Amino acid sequence: MDIASFIGIFGGLGAIMFGAYMGGSLGGLIDIPSLFITGGGSFACLFITYPLSYVIGLFSVMGRVFKVFDFGEKAIVQKLVSFSEKARREGILALEEEIQDLDDEFMRGGLRLVVDGTDGEVIRTLMENELNQMEGRHNTWITLVNAWATLAPGFGMLGTVIGLIGMLLKLEDKSALGPNMAVALVTTLYGSVMQNWLFVPIAGKLGYQNSMEVKAREMVIEGVLSIQAGDNPRILAQKLLTYLSPRDRKTIESDVLKD
Question: How far apart are CA 3 and CA 250, in angstroms?
């Protein structure tokens, strides 16, 4: 569970509500028709822009911001160095049994190509293509969230215009001008809140998760190609350690950089 996302979501909501309460307008922020116009209208427009399956699956993808994903960068370094040492001692074919138990399908597929004697450039092309396709799928979801972030303020303004029209139709009732104007402006607030409190931050977190997964797979590609080229395990380790943060690097550096 990603505590940071919970802090951001509920902390942001709490700050908005506390500010409204201190300003004496907390009750005035609740307006169901405005919520339908802004939230429902902007969400409905996503069906025009994207296929049905993507829009329906959007909430499941957005829920990823509440999960912590460990892409196992340190484990990747240790496994690949171990495979490199075994290949150097016993030959590439000795890896055939080792890779059967790998949970990482991407790494297993790459090492399978190495065992089969595939050329290094072909391995790079195949693995980078798979990586690019994965990143493309992720970016589609991120773009979808950003599209909702773009649409919400527009529908907020649309709701405000609708409210102003209703206010002008009752212009002779002076006592209703203030309340009607307040309700009209609530939709603009809803659009801005949805964009800045929810959708832009969620897209940012999804982008971060994507970049971390891409980095982990780039490490795998680098390691697989190094094993295929017959590099010294120490050289392979030094290549992969550059991907880690200084703190993570220190925890495993002594294990993988053996004399």
Answer: 26
d(CA 205, CA 126): 28
What's the rounded Cα separation, in Å, for the pair 50 and 46? 6
26: enclosing H helix or E strand: none
User: If 0-12 CB within 10 Å is exposed, 13-18 middle and 19+ buried, where does residue 242 land?
Assistant: exposed
Which pair of structure tokens corresponds to residue 109?
């597929």
Which of the four pLDDT bands, split at 50, 70 and 90, describes residue 219? very high
C-alpha span between 111 and 134 (Å, rounded): 19
3-state secondary structure of 116: coil
81, 256 in Cβ contact below 8 A?
yes
Q: Contact at 8 Å (CB) between 192 and 228? A: no
218 Cβ contact list (under 8 Å, min separation 6): 131, 243
Residues 6+ apart with CB under 8 A from 252: 74, 77, 78, 241, 244
Q: What average pLDDT does the chain have? A: 87
Indicate if the alpha-carbon torsion angle 115, 118, 121, 123 is positive or negative: negative
pLDDT of residue 178: 63
pTM beyond 0.90: the answer is no
Q: Exposed/middle/buried for 91, CB within 10 Å: 0-12, 13-18, 19+? A: exposed
3-state secondary structure of 58: helix
Res. 42: pLDDT tops 60:
yes
Residue 154 CB-half CA count within 13 A: 9
